[in-house]
Sequence to fold (483 residues):
Amino acid sequence: MVLFQNHSDPKYQLLEGPKKKCSCVAHSWAIFGLIVLSITITLISLVMIWDQIKQMQRKTETLDIVLFGPKRENSDVVRFSEYRVLSYALANGSYSPSTDRLNKASGNKINSNVETYQHVEKPYALVCYYVTPSRSSSVDRLYPDDIDANLCTHIIISFATVHNNSLHFADTDIVDQLLALKKNNTNLKLLLSVVSFSTSSDAFATMVSTEANRKMFVESVTRVLEVYSLDGIDLDWEFPAWPETRDVIQRDQFTELLKEMRTSFGSKFMISVAVAAPYVISDRAYDVPSMALYVDFVNLMCYDYHAYVWYLPFTGPNSPLFSSGIDVNYGTTLNTNYTVHYWIDRGMPRSKIIVGMPTYGHSWTLKYPNINGYGALAEGYGSIGEKGFVSYRKICDFTNLKDTVTVFDGNTRVPYAYNDKEWLSFDNERSLSYKAEYIAEKGLGGAMIFSLNQDDFEGTVCPERVTFPLVKRVKMVILDDLL
Fold:
């Protein structure tokens, strides 16, 4: 092996010779060439960035195709979560500093993470979504017989749809089985959820578009509630007038539907609405003061704040209670605390605010395994779960692995875990305890669980070895004045 060159070697001198004879003009041309090359590379980079921006715009314009294409093979719960993730991510991506409410007086109030809490002793609602097993994946087959009648104060049966301006629900046998739970708990309330994801040609949008269509729908809902002895209806339209390419009049039409529904129902049936967490969506989708007049409560969907999408490929908390240490500007609004204060500030009574809590998490595949905190670059969904959607049972399997590191973040009050390139944000008993206590201290209406199906309902996987460990922890904390 040659370790060094002898400068007296003729071969070396032949190589060096031309360089020694190089003129200053040649050096100048070389420098000029480098400058031209740098400018060319910069221009190409700018063109590529502009092309990516145009692709994002086209992605937004074709969002309906992405969201509302043919039915996939994965479970309804996963599909519906995926739709919401894309809608939330679109809100995050479309944020503009010109619409930033953080510098406004109300915004400062909304964004406050430090307040003097006042505990209010009152009965709290524990609202639990239940996805019928015939429309869920095989691993989430939870049946009414396996549900404790005293576990929740309300069970919302998911999902009905709108067809020809009427309510459509196929799983009526499940309703009969759930009604049997009332034999052991006469105070249990059963509501039926109507789900829809907004498009210009969506059945729900068509239904609200005229007074005649709305009347037909209200009449069909009334018949279903009466025939099946249900206590009310839950409207999960995601979302009126959103994205911004859709008709803003849908907001007023949705309000009219709520008004007409309340006029028809009186106090006989309950009305709840599942609402968006990001204020960018809520500002456009809801007339909150008017909504407050007609609904019994709203279910804040305080989850899916962060999940993997191709144009925002960074890790983040699925359902943070407070903002993280790295959040700035709009990012400081993506948490439960901000969402709650937004709805209070807009005029929703505290007693009608039900805070949503997930029994699932989101997974990412890290680009670099050693960069594994919030804001880490990701290259796709995680390998566990479906489309990054992970039930609590699978979360427990992951956190129990030998090399998995679990971190409980003191700012957001939620955990995350990683193992090599696999990264997961989720809730556990500790994080839900913080949220349940927050609800009690704020004097809010209660907690909403999405969903019973995603908890360890058999009590066979997670360390607690009890059925529904997450739901039971929320119930224990929110109803125990000694905690």
